[in-house]
Write a structure and sequence with these properties.
Elements: E1 2-4, H1 7-17, H2 21-36, E2 41-49, E3 52-60, E4 75-83, E5 86-94, E6 99-108, E7 115-119, E8 125-126, E9 131-132, E10 137-140, E11 146-156, E12 160-169, E13 187-197, E14 202-218, E15 227-242
Antiparallel strand pairs: 1-2, 2-5, 3-4, 4-7, 5-6, 6-11, 7-10, 8-9, 11-12, 12-13, 13-14, 14-15
Length: 244
């Protein structure tokens, strides 16, 4: 669910949720810009998106357990993932008739993700331990709040549009929760793109995005998967737009 709110409502929500003061200051500066040069502002928007939960349920089936097959009967497994609330503010500014620049700020309340709990029926007790081998689990996450900053611009000519963008994406994953399943870290992203209008009804857009994740080193006993994590990604996009 999304709600578009006013400046005063936005401030009240931010204060109630304990958002850092520098975010409030940035929002005030954003509105000051609007008041000083309203004619050059193409659009401005603040948005608060409420959190929620997604529930998953399915049948767990264990195979190739050989002698241990009896102790893993499977059953219905359940888990729940939180979808964190986030707060967004953005502005588009027309520098001139051809050049438009945009800036967006997003604050994500990742602290809602405390743990990943898997519920599954216990299997029969294992004779050597007196406890079931098949049982539910709780994986502590304790994510922290994080933010993203996006900057971009588009230079439009008669048929051609050139685009450039930059993203800083702060990781919400603390050292103790870093794992191969999600080797997350702060990311810097650069994007270039272009669009070309062949006619009023035919348009082609292409983009390239380079993502560089900062290197992270975690050690035991703080982390169960000690090591050095780093990654990069190259993403390409191509779309064809047809109008009728």
């Amino acid at each position: 669910m999304k709600i578009i709110i006013s400046e005063s409502q936005l401030s009240l929500i931010k204060e109630a949720l304990g958002v850092p003061n520098y975010i409030l200051d940035a929002a005030e500066m954003l509105y000051d810009v609007v008041e000083k040069d309203i004619k050059s502002i193409d659009s401005i928007e603040d948005e608060y998106e409420f959190d929620g939960d997604i529930e998953f349920e399915g049948d767990a089936v264990f195979t190739d357990m050989q002698a241990l097959n009896t102790f893993f009967p499977g059953g219905t497994g359940k888990t729940k993932l939180p979808m964190p609330a986030d707060l967004k503010a953005g502005i588009a500014y027309n520098v001139n008739e051809k050049l438009t620049v945009e800036a967006d700020f997003e604050y994500v309340f990742w602290d809602a993700y405390k743990e990943l709990k898997l519920d599954i029926p216990d299997g029969p007790n294992f004779p050597l331990t007196g406890a079931p081998l098949q049982t539910g689990s709780v994986d502590v996450k304790d994510y922290k709040n994080a933010y993203l900053v996006r900057l971009g611009g588009e230079y439009s000519m008669e048929k051609l549009a050139l685009r450039l963008g930059f993203v800083y994406d702060m990781s919400p994953v603390p050292d103790k929760s870093l794992e191969p399943l999600l080797p997350d870290s702060d990311r810097l992203e650069g994007i270039i793109g272009l669009g070309y209008m062949f006619s009023e009804n035919v348009r082609v857009d292409a983009a390239y995005q380079y993502i560089k994740a900062s290197e992270r080193t975690v050690t035991s006993p703080t982390n169960e998967f000690p090591g050095t994590y780093n990654s990069t990604a190259n993403l390409f996009g191509l779309t064809l737009g047809l109008g009728f």
